[in-house]
Amino acid sequence: MTKYSKKLPAVYNEYQQKLRTPEEAVKVVKSGDWVDYTVALGFPKLLDRALAKRKDELTDVKIRGNLIFGPIETVECDPERTHFYYNSWHCSNYERKLCDMGLCNYIPMSFRNVVPYYRTFLDVNVAMMSVAPMDNHGYFNLSCSTGVGKGILDKADIVILEVNEHLPRILGGFGECIHISEVDYIVEGEHSRLPQMSVAEAEEEDIKIAEFILPEIKSGATLQLGIGAMPSVIGKKLAESDIKDLGMHTELATDAYVDLYEAGKLTNKKKNIFSGKSVTGVTIGTDRIYEWADDNPGFAACPLEYVNNPYTIAKIDDMISINSCIAIDLYGQVSAESAGLRHISGTGGQLDFLTGASMSIGGKAFVCMKSAFSDKNGELHSNIRPYFNGDIVTDPRSQDHFIVTEYGIINMAGRSTWERTEMLIGIAHPMFRDELIRAAEKQKIWRRTNKVK
Questions:
Q1: pTM for this one?
Q2: Residue 130 class from Cβ within 10 Å (0-12 exposed, 13-18 middle, 19+ buried)?
Q3: Tens of pLDDT, residues 172-186
Q4: Active-site choice (95, 176, 251, 406)
Q5: Same fold across 3-187 and 204-442
Q6: CA-to-CA dists, residue 160 to 28, 139, 163, 278, angstroms
Q7: Which tens digit of pLDDT belongs to each residue from 139-192?
Q8: Which helix (H) or strand (E) holds 368?
Q9: How far apart are the C-alpha atoms of 346 and 90, rounded to whole Å?
Q10: Domain 3-187 falls in which CATH fold?
Q11: Catalytic residue at 251?
């Protein structure tokens, strides 16, 4: 006897009728199919393992996913990519390594467009997704992967859900659940602890960057914080500050927001939309955020086509967007997804939030980076380049606003090429300023009266 049979026997019976082993469920996949694994913690580990076992029966099965921690057994069992061909909308550290080995292809996008792409242009023969256990009403919660989950499941010819007993139940919002009547097959099984995405320890440069940004944030502002040590240290510094009544509207919720919540800084009282609620599309972090998000009426998951829509973001007064990049050139082009031709991550929602925050009344969009990096031989290189040569441009120069390094903060909105050059060289690592000036002169974007301290 289960809790479902006591209250809704029809729902329980339907559950039992659709219940399969992973091996039985993946028999629906055919050669040439498009299979979807959705995003992040939505990755169906048991189904992926079962599908990998069918390697010798299948060819040219094309799989989409993103931000998956791995391992992905369908990829690792087929290094020749004859049977399974994996593609990612946004690369995790694990998927980046797959790209380096030629085992993963990136799909260019801005996150707000992912589900519209499915709805209008893409085929999904089989969608497989990990979800929280079914409730008494027959609904499966899409949990940490609500951002794109429902849109992909809606497009699929066949829907298979993998019940993960550890996933938190994250309330909506909207688009955060799917009813059993919309599901073809269900699988169960034991899962290990949820992936833990801990953030690297902040370095001195990260702290200096955070200190430049902190005075730009006022009480009542709403925050979007990207991934990495620098956004995390901003969250910690805000938690220790006198700033209050902050809000959360972000594509990706991480532990940085837990710091703000536990310090009493995150109230969402001043938000123009979803007042009183922390809004996100995808949740990744450690057990701290999974426990905070679980069944929390103050935490709302919504589809990314809403969360990341610049017009949604623009409705929120004093919207603050803080993201990182890899490099910027003297023209103001920002690369946040490749190092030269090496693929690193993806566009994600950076351009979405840069645009939306810049449209917000009182809003500000910050793109941050260390001024230089050391290669494997210990040689220092500037992250401010004369021009890009193969680097993928994430943010066009026409969209730039605030750029921050450990040497300062600048606002390039409305600035000419020579003004941008002067500003950027002013926040470059001092070791490279003279050579950047010489490059700017050669590129005819340096004014003789320019001065760099």
A1: 0.94
A2: buried
A3: 889 999 999 999 999
A4: 251
A5: yes
A6: 10, 14, 10, 30
A7: 999 999 999 999 999 999 999 999 999 999 999 889 999 999 999 999 999 999
A8: strand 364-368
A9: 5
A10: Glutaconate Coenzyme A-transferase (3.40.1080)
A11: yes
